[in-house]
Specification:
Blueprint lengths: L29 H12 L3 H12 L3 H24 L7 H43 L5 E3 L2 E3 L1 H13 L9 H7 L2 H18 L16 H11 L6 H6 L7 H27 L16 H33 L5 H21 L3 H31 L6 H33 L1
Antiparallel strand pairs: 1-2
Helix pairs in contact: 1-10, 2-8, 2-10, 3-8, 3-10, 3-13, 4-5, 4-11, 4-12, 4-13, 5-12, 6-11, 7-10, 7-11, 8-13, 8-14, 11-12, 13-14
Length: 418
């Protein structure tokens, strides 16, 4: 999933969104648009993709490729919905165009809940990887014993809290744009561990693991959830006719990077893979530390970007956007809430799988297909049977993933909490 989904909309006035580029000079060219798209699709899914492959086995790579193709196609469906009306600039606008106010609220609700869980994933990730570096860093707080992992989640929460208090996130946006570069560094560091630090590629893995397939599919869905920012990217293009080509390039690059990381991780550690591949890396090696520190930096820079749309929507709903103090309190409450969830359910893979199955899959498969079919019907467009069949099949596949993946993820979380 893209961690930089920072321009999701809510409310009829889209008050939480930056205005679209006002002139041709403000719009982006082809290459920059491709970079923005890759950055939208790159994220913490890179860490969990080897674990996903170990859950489903080698045969699940076919499902992974199918999900990539489907998500690329549904991105084009969003473009077609936007072309239907000049008033449509955000994903919730597409929901409103298709199903009215209820459609807007449904799309916004799924998007904001997804962003909230991504913020939770960030804190869990920080706690897990810092605990890997400093396993004995527990402490006592009064009469309460705080474990190392829990302490690092609290430390990460305190670190990101001040960054959420600012309404202007321009500086952080530039920092978060390094996500694509961080992904390259992470892959290179893991490769170095395998080739030069003695781990090698000795595991054969399994052809199929049907019991773990729902988790694998859910994690794969999480990797390609960039649809929330596709409308912004489309609006910012100088030549919108090239948007399908942009999507194609972005999905090819992302699929190759995710797939490469998944394959090398599975060959390195097989069924012994943990929820994040960095947790398997040998301690003490410089390459391992590079991988882990790269992993740690990204969430710290992107956390505020993820939380900002939720905060601005809550502030608008409460009518407190003019009060600096109340805005700070709202944002602090949101951060504290994510920390509480991260401490209560500190299971990275299961939370990511739940996010992917219930929310990402809904945003990337179900909603685009249903919205496009509805918009096409309302506007009286021609109805090619092949296109209709594709949308119906995608909606059916999305529904199956939502049901099976959500059930599997919730079951795993409940079992771990016992």
């Amino acid at each position: 999933m893209a961690a930089a989904t920072t321009t999701t909309g809510a409310g009829d006035n889209n008050a939480d969104l930056p205005p679209p580029p006002s002139s041709a000079s403000d719009k982006t060219g082809f290459l920059k648009t491709c970079f923005n798209g890759v950055n939208a699709l790159s994220g913490i899914g890179l860490l969990s993709i080897p674990y996903a492959l170990s859950q489903g086995g080698w045969s699940s790579l076919a499902v992974f490729l199918a999900i990539a193709v489907i998500c690329c196609y549904t991105g084009i469906l969003l473009q077609r919905c936007m072309d239907a009306s000049a008033l449509v600039t955000t994903y919730p606008d597409i929901g409103a165009l298709a199903f009215g106010r209820r459609g807007r609220l449904a799309v916004a609700a799924f998007m904001y809940l997804e962003l909230y869980l991504v913020a939770v994933d960030f804190l869990i990730l920080e706690g897990d990887n810092l605990h890997k570096l400093f396993p004995g860093a527990g402490f006592r707080l009064g009469g309460l014993r705080v474990g190392a992992k829990q302490g690092f989640v609290l430390a990460a929460t305190l670190a990101v809290l001040p960054t959420t208090w600012f309404s202007s996130l321009g500086v952080l946006a530039y920092a978060a744009a390094g996500g694509a570069l961080a992904s390259v560094v992470l892959i290179a560091a893991v490769m170095w561990v395998a080739v030069f630090d003695g781990v090698g590629f000795h595991e054969r893995g399994r052809l199929a693991h049907w019991a773990g397939m729902p988790s694998a599919v859910s994690l794969y869905s999480f990797c390609f959830s960039g649809h929330a920012v596709f409308p912004m990217i489309y609006n910012g293009m100088k030549d919108r006719k090239r948007f399908p080509m942009v999507l194609f390039i972005c999905f090819v690059v992302s699929t190759l990077s995710y797939g490469f990381m998944g394959v090398i991780g599975y060959l390195m550690y097989g069924d012994a893979l943990m929820s994040q591949v960095t947790l398997n890396l040998p301690p003490g090696k410089v390459s391992s530390k590079v991988a882990i520190y790269t992993t740690l930096v990204n969430p710290l820079t992107k956390y505020a970007l993820v939380v900002a749309p939720i905060a601005e929507a809550v502030e608008a709903a409460l009518g407190v956007r003019k009060s600096r103090l109340l805005c700070v309190l709202v944002r602090t409450a949101l951060v504290v809430g994510t920390a509480v969830v991260a401490l209560a359910v500190p299971f990275f893979a299961d939370v990511v799988a739940l996010t992917g199955a219930l929310l990402s899959c809904t945003a990337t498969m179900l909603l685009p297909s249903l919205c496009y079919l509805r918009v096409r019907a309302k506007l009286g467009y021609k109805k090619p049977w092949l296109e209709t069949a594709a949308c119906v099949v995608i909606a059916a596949v999305g529904t199956a993933i939502v049901v099976l993946g959500t059930y599997s993820s919730v079951k795993q979380i409940v079992q771990r909490l016992k």
